[in-house]
Each structure stands twice: as structure tokens, then as C-alpha cells.
Amino acid sequence: MPEDDMSDEPEIVLPSNPITPTKLDLDNDFQFACHPGVSCFNKCCQSIDIQLTPYDILRLKARLGITAREFLFRYTVPFEMDGQGVPGLKLKTRDETTACSFLTDEGCSVYSDRPTACRYYALGVVSMRKKDSPVDEDFYFVVKEEHCQGHAEPKTQTVREYRQAQGVESYDELNREWRQLVLKKRSCGPVVGKPSDRSLQLFFLASYDLDGLREFLQSPSFQEAYEIDAAMQEQLRTDDVALMQFGFRFLKHVLFGEKFLTEKPDALERRVARRRAREEAEQKAAGT
Ligand code: SF4
Ligand code: SF4
Fold this sequence. Notes:
Helix 5 runs parallel beside helix 10 (240-256). A hairpin with an 8-residue loop joins strand 7 (123-128) and strand 8 (137-143). The chain has two domains: 14-181, no CATH class; 209-284, no CATH class. The chain is of the alpha+beta class. The protein contains eleven helices and eleven strands. A three-stranded antiparallel beta sheet has the order 1-8-7, with no helix packed on it. Strands 2-9 form a two-stranded antiparallel sheet. Residues 34, 38, 40-44, 121-122, 147-150 line the site of one iron/sulfur cluster.
């Protein structure tokens, strides 16, 4: 709009927007570099808002040598990813500050296992699926925050080169099924109504609590319900990545009916018998 067209309008100050609204694809260039020599080194880690993915949690808990539950308890805060109650987790800040718990004077103490969002910065990514398309389409944009001097560095690279250098590709690949699931759950929301508590609990378990998921898969109720061969049982016991991916497929199976497991022929009868036995035991204990 020419400047004169606004001459009668009151003067307003538009809020600054850190996102440069230019859609980039993998082969587009952008100018940015981050290294310990920049004057703002570590500034971005002093005020964080980082959403965690299942693979982020898997890598960080392995790095710290703790269980998933301990990691969730010590390093995360819950939030709702949408209006449907779908649970998300963010990285907790250090007590009474906005700084990341993993930040030290020397920089990030978990750098080679840092979360996806840290790897992407200063790029953002949006995944969308066009109507009638079977695949998601990712597009990227630059996030320019005032404190970040990396945009003044002379280096340019394509989005593809940046993703490779930051190790984002394997993270995105391993989280892909989960992201699809989240998108699908969001888009189904208004149609099917609020998800049940049980489906939200299952979503949490399969997305974030790998140790809890492993226990659940070994429980009598699960073992009695589904056919799982010995090789797969062993893999689920010993391989966290295989367990995580099994969890994503199990969620699709339960939430969206995308059949992935075969039920045992007598699964229903066993479930009923076990429920009866439990009710009888409860009645006995209550003296009724
Ligand atoms: S995990 Fe590392 S890179 Fe990410 S915010 Fe924390 S200190 Fe910074
Ligand atoms: S250049 Fe940007 S990303 Fe790098 S340390 Fe500074 S604020 Fe963080």
C-alpha cells in the first residue's frame, strides 16, 4: 500500500515478529552461522520454550543414563498440545530461571544429543498434508530473534545442507510416524469428540515413557491379547528405538484402527476371565 493511503490512519506500532515469513524449501539458501565466537553465544539457551519429541527423550535419557520416567520427572513440564487434551512435554528450565537445565558456561552439556528444536534453530519447520495427498509436505522458515547475531554471519547454506550439518534428518525420520499421528489426532478431534482418558494415557505412555511402555508390553494383559513372535519380543526388550517405533504403530492400531497386530484367538475369553477373577478378589477383600 502506498504511504499516502495511510496518512489519515492513527499511527500504530505493529508487534515485531521473529519469523521471516518466507517459505523455504530444501534447496533454498539462507544466511546464518552459529559458533562459540559469536557475541551472543548461549543467549538462545537462556530463555527456552522447547517442545520434546519421543526420539529427543530417548536420546537424552540414554545420554544421562537414567530411565525415561526419571527423565520426565526431572527435566520436563507437561502442556496440552491442542484443545483436545493431547499431552505434550517441554524441557524444564533451571530453577527460578528461564535457562535450559543443560546449559553450562561452556555451552550445551548434551550437545550431541540435543533435542530436535535446538538442532533446527534458527529455522522453523511446518508439516502439512494437502487434501487428497498421501504424504506430508514440510516447509521451512527463518526465525530471526533480536538477540541472535548468527544472521549477521556471512555464511550461507541451503536448508538441506543445514539439516545435514545439524543431524536433523535422522531425528525427523525417527519421529515422522509420531508427527503424522499427532496431525491425524488433531484433525480427527472435532469430528470424533474429545479423546477418552484411556486413549490419552496410552498416547502418553507410547510417546514419552519408554520404560512404562516396555513393562506394559510384557504385562499379562498385553501378552494374552496379541501374537508377537519371539524375535520381536526380544527386540522390544533390548532395543529402545524398535520399542519406540512399535509404540507409534500400536497407537495407530488402537486409535485409528490401522491394523498392525494380530489378536490371539482366545484373547477376549481370557480378558473376561481375568476381569472376573479380579472383581472376585476385590469383593473378597472388601468382605462382600
Ligand atoms: S538442550 Fe542444549 S542446545 Fe538445547 S536449549 Fe538446552 S543447552 Fe541449549
Ligand atoms: S548465534 Fe543465535 S543460535 Fe547461535 S548462540 Fe547466538 S543466539 Fe544462539
